[in-house]
Specification:
The chain is mainly alpha-helical and 422 residues long. It is built from 16 helices and four strands. Helices cover 63% and strands 4% of the residues. Helix 4 runs antiparallel to helix 5, helix 5 runs antiparallel to helix 6 and helix 10 packs across helix 12.
Length: 422
């Protein structure tokens, strides 16, 4: 087993380095997809292959290899998609690794057992710094961390075996243990295709939205921390069902599978409710808050508004724009909640911005999110938006058109646009 585990670990490390580059400076989706397939191919070549179909004929062998590619690429992308709230991806990885380790030691596969134990231990050591209720995380997985964890867990699931001569257990165990990842990936893919949000595979890779499981559960529960805990416990519940299934009689096994299906149906009902809450809020007309229990929210652009543009482009940050420190401190003293918004949306970018803001003593509450609306992804919810290249819409598109044209021809527009190119 060690001779098959080593190349998988090496491939996962290469994927981590590639994803770290993507965290620092985004890589084109076509290049990412090609790299994902290459990494999956290396894992399959090392022995991480499904054994669902008979391998003694070309058609069955081809089906197993195809399924292996889908499983590996799908699982580590699903974990990456779930890495949208502090502690979620690491928590899910811990649960999956623990249950995989139990099965591995039970079936006398110590190499896989110790590998999953190492993953679980690393995640448990990471969580206190990434999942801190009431406070911002001090470190993040990024694509580098989530892709490494997802790739390793998906590959380990194929390197070993799940049961001896029991196809029901062999198929159902990994499906139950990885159920949260499979569920979220399947649900959002079908929903996005049916709604026309994505029309190609590359759009599917690049698409970001507030339609994931954690966004909708947070909308229902009204709290990101509760949503993370809920999803992790849901995964643990289905993992326990997987362990119970291993020694169950046929009738009991069918009942356990039925129970797991009902759990997913209940989750779907909660998701639909969360979708309704999010859609309902988005249809509301935004108004400046005058409520005593919620401060007014200023969402302020970073580059060009707080920090000067740098000709060399990202990831460099320019000097503070004169007055930004003084007037943001004044707004903060008047009770405003200040959210920094930027297309520097990767975890490395956000960490660099936070450090820069602290060094220059510029006050802020959050970066690229408003935790009062935990389900919201992308543009933070705010009462007022301050941007060096914003156009105020006042009900007339002809006037807005003129303003857009004027903005387009401002000196320096091309240089700024080129500094974002990749």
């Amino acid at each position: 087993m060690a001779h098959r585990l080593a190349p998988v670990l090496a491939t996962a490390t290469l994927l981590m380095l590639f994803s770290a580059r993507d965290d620092i400076r985004p890589i084109r989706s076509s290049i990412k997809f090609t790299t994902f397939l290459i990494c999956a191919g290396l894992a399959v070549a090392a022995g991480a292959q499904a054994t669902i179909f008979p391998a003694d004929n070309p058609l069955g062998a081809a089906a197993n290899i195809s399924l292996s590619f889908i499983w590996i690429v799908g699982i580590f992308n699903a974990l990456n998609f779930l890495d949208g709230m502090d502690g979620l991806a690491a928590g899910i990885s811990t649960v999956i690794a623990v249950f995989m380790g139990v099965v591995a030691f039970e079936t006398d596969q110590p190499a896989i057992g110790w590998a999953t134990a190492a993953i679980a231990g690393a995640c448990l050591g990471f969580l206190p710094y990434n999942f801190r209720p009431g406070r911002r995380a001090s470190i993040f997985l990024g694509d580098a961390g989530s892709n490494f964890l997802g790739f390793m867990l998906a590959s380990l699931a194929l390197l070993g075996f799940w049961a001896n001569a029991d196809p029901l257990v062999a198929i159902s165990n990994p499906l139950l243990i990885f159920s949260v990842l499979i569920y979220d990936m399947t649900y959002i893919t079908l929903d996005r295709v049916a709604s026309g949000k994505v029309r190609s595979f590359y759009q599917w890779i690049d698409y970001t939205g507030q339609d994931h499981l954690h966004h909708r559960i947070a909308a229902v529960l009204g709290d990101r921390t509760k949503a993370v805990a809920f999803i992790i416990m849901m995964n643990a519940t289905l993992g326990v069902a997987a362990l119970g299934l291993r020694s169950a009689e046929p009738l009991t096994a069918i009942l356990l599978l039925g129970q797991a299906l009902l759990v997913l149906v209940l989750i779907t009902m909660l998701e639909r409710r969360g979708k309704g809450l999010i859609s309902g809020f988005l249809r509301q007309e935004p108004k400046i808050s005058k409520e005593s229990d919620r401060p007014p929210v200023l969402v302020v652009d970073f580059d060009g508004t707080i920090a000067e543009w740098v000709p060399s482009g990202y990831p460099a940050i320019g000097k503070p724009i004169e007055g930004s420190h003084r007037f943001l401190r004044l707004l903060k003293s008047e009770g405003w909640k200040i959210i920094i918004n930027s297309c520097r949306s990767g975890t490395e970018y956000e960490a660099a911005m936070a450090k820069w803001l602290q060094q220059n003593e510029i006050p802020y509450d959050e970066i690229n999110r408003n935790s009062d609306y935990p389900w919201a992804a992308g543009k933070p919810v705010g009462d007022v938006y301050l941007d060096d290249r914003g156009v105020r819409f006042e009900g007339r598109w002809d006037a807005a058109y003129q303003k857009v044209q004027e903005l387009l021809h401002l000196e320096g527009h091309n240089e700024i646009a080129e500094s974002h190119g990749d």
